[in-house]
Structures are given as C-alpha cells and as structure tokens.
Design a protein that fits this description.
Layout (H helix, E strand, L loop, with lengths): L10 H4 L1 E3 L2 H25 L4 H4 L18 E5 L1 E12 L5 E14 L2 E9 L15 E6 L13 E6 L8 E5 L39
C-alpha cells in the first residue's frame, strides 16, 4: 500500500506532529503486528475476554485496517482551565459522570482536529482500580463509524505520563479499538458525545467485529 509522506508540523507552533512511514521505521510495523497478535491471543484465551464471559458468542478473530502511518500523531495534552463534570451515556442507557479534562489536537491533510480527553472522578475509583487515576479516556466517532467500524464508536488507550505541559503524547489510531459491547450485549460502554465526532475517515485501527 503506497503511503504518502506527510508534512511535519512545527511542535513549537502547534504542539502537534504527524509521523511518516520513514520516521516510524520497520520496527513500528513489527510493533503493531505484535500488538494485534497479543490482542488476538487475549481474546481467545484470557479469562477476562468477553468471549469467555459470554460463551454464547463465538470468537472469530478481530478485523483491522491495514497499518497506516498517516494516522500516528504527536500532541501536547491541553488541559482545560476549569475541567467540568459531564454526563456520558452508556449503551444500556445509564448516565455516567466523567471529567472533561483536556484535549489533544492533530493535523491531517492540512486541517487541525481536536479530540477530547476524559478522566474518572476520584470518588468513582474504587479499591483495586487505582490504575484508572492516570487513565486518559479518548472516545471518538468518525466517518467510518457505522460503516467499516463499530456503530457506537472506538477508543484510544492513553496513560497520563507527565505534568510537563510540553510533553508530547502519541495518538496512534492504528491501536484504536472497539469496546467490549461491540462483541456481546452483556457489557455497557461509553458512547462518544456529539462533540467527540471527527469529521474525517480514520481508516486505521479495529473494524467492525461482524457486519
């Protein structure tokens, strides 16, 4: 698959960088292949797999877009001065309180995009789930949603790493994944809010599990 080498946006001006195939190198492709193989193994064999929890659903392997370096970006974490608690709906109709904490931004084909970052409230982090303190929840929908990709939306998994405002995070849409409710209705998952829609086709990451 022919990959266009993207321009590099100045970190100083925009705090966002797009990556090219040459910059990422062959090791990156090996990493993504290994990540997908590990995910497949977990879904097949792990006791925490949704297919172990709901044995009425048969595991037939995950489906992915081809690895696409155009959808790997670097961005600062831009924190809201006054983070607000917002309601995020779950797929079973329940309301969840989440902190709209910050946002990332990236440039794709000359256009700047913004994607919100949510965090769990301290009061909602129960013993044994302390790992969620640094978890940055990134949920999104795009022009592939409901077509090639899961109709509810997809997620990115990112951990807060630094208090340095100039620290750059990696937004790798090749690792965008479906929540567990994409495989079985026994789960409920967060529905990306209206403002979490990205007006472009993100042809990277996980596709629909079934048509």
């Amino acid at each position: 698959m022919k990959v266009k080498i993207l321009f590099v946006v100045s970190v100083i001006l925009f705090g966002v960088v797009s990556c090219s195939k040459d910059e990422l190198g062959s090791e990156y492709f090996d990493e993504i292949k290994a990540h997908r193989a590990q995910t497949d193994s977990l879904f097949k064999y792990s006791d925490s797999s949704p297919f172990k929890r709901d044995t009425s659903v048969k595991y037939e392997g995950l489906k992915w877009f081809e690895i696409n370096p155009e959808f790997v970006f670097k961005s600062k974490l831009y924190k809201y001065e006054q983070p607000e608690t917002v309601i995020v709906l779950g797929t079973k109709g329940e309301e969840r309180n989440q902190i709209k904490y910050a946002w990332f931004q990236f440039k794709y084909h000359g256009k700047l995009y913004k994607i919100n970052v949510y965090k769990y409230r301290e009061s909602d982090i129960t013993p044994g789930r302390e790992v969620l303190k640094n978890y940055l929840a990134v949920w999104f929908r795009d022009k592939t949603t409901g077509r090639e990709t899961y109709e509810v939306g997809r997620y990115l998994e990112i951990e807060e790493e630094s208090n340095d405002p100039d620290h750059l995070y990696t937004l790798d849409f090749n690792k965008a994944y479906n929540p567990y409710c994409a495989y079985t209705p026994i789960y409920s998952c967060a529905i990306p809010r209206k403002e979490d829609y990205l007006n472009l086709r993100i042809t990277a990451g996980e596709k629909k599990y079934r048509e």
